[in-house]
Amino acid sequence: MRHPLRRKNLSPRLLPFYALALLGFWWAQPSARSLGLGAAVMGVGLALRAWAAGHLVKRRVLCTSGPYAHLRHPLYLGTLILVSGFGVAAGSQGGVLVFGAFVAVFFLYYLPYKERVESERLEQRYSAAYEQYRLAVPGLWPRWSPWRTPSHWSLDPLGQGRWLRARYHDNNEWGTLLGVMAGFGALVFRALFQDPGA
């Protein structure tokens, strides 16, 4: 597993998200009920991210299998679901801040930036194949039926469209899981030791 504090995770672009997380924790008022509901929502986000990470081969293959046959950004959607779960788990006050502010920053800044950069990179590398895929598969709202990769494409000779644990590991999804567990553990700690009169 790659170290979670690598340079990519310390990018200045991520500072607003870290600041929101700290403010959300500061204002959190978790209860047993909010923690249970939040954990269920987080589980959905983690499952989607795990499914995507097990198919994704960065910089070598145009991934169109698994969740990528339904939407182009399953990792981002999984992250949105995870944050929603944290918002629910944090209780009303922290949840409104985390969910509302995160969603605003995500859709107004982060997603447009990543969409532009990644689309340019994938178009340069895969040209017409990526353009065909981009036009057929939505970004965040999944299509019901999976998009079928044209038979003449041979873009995934290793996995052949299967989920692989090695890819999950290579994409550092273990680090995501550990981070989510640490964040959820902090909310549980907060629930156990918060002032009952607050």
Describe, in plain words, how this protein is organized in 3D.
The protein has 198 residues and is mainly α. It has one domain (31-150, 160-192). 62% of the residues lie in helices and 0% in strands. It has seven helices and no strands. Helix 2 (32-53) runs antiparallel to helix 7 (173-193), helix 3 (74-89) runs antiparallel to helix 4 (92-126) and helix 4 runs antiparallel to helix 5 (128-136). It is elongated, with a radius of gyration of 18 Å. It starts with 14 loop residues before the first helix and ends in a 5-residue tail after the last helix.
List the helices and strands and how they pair.
Layout: H1 15-27, H2 32-53, H3 74-89, H4 92-126, H5 128-136, H6 165-170, H7 173-193
Please give a quick description of this structure:
With 198 residues, this protein is mostly helical. It has helices at residues 15-27, 32-53, 74-89, 92-126, 128-136, 165-170, 173-193.
Number of domains: 1
Q: Can you count the beta strands?
A: 0
Poorly predicted spans: none
Instruction: Please bin the fraction of helical residues.
Output: 55-70%
Largest sheet: none
**Would you list the SSEs in sequence order as H and E?**
HHHHHHH
Strand content: under 5%
- Note the gap between the termini: 40 Å
Task: Enumerate how many helices there are, as a single number.
Answer: 7
Please, what is the average pLDDT?
83
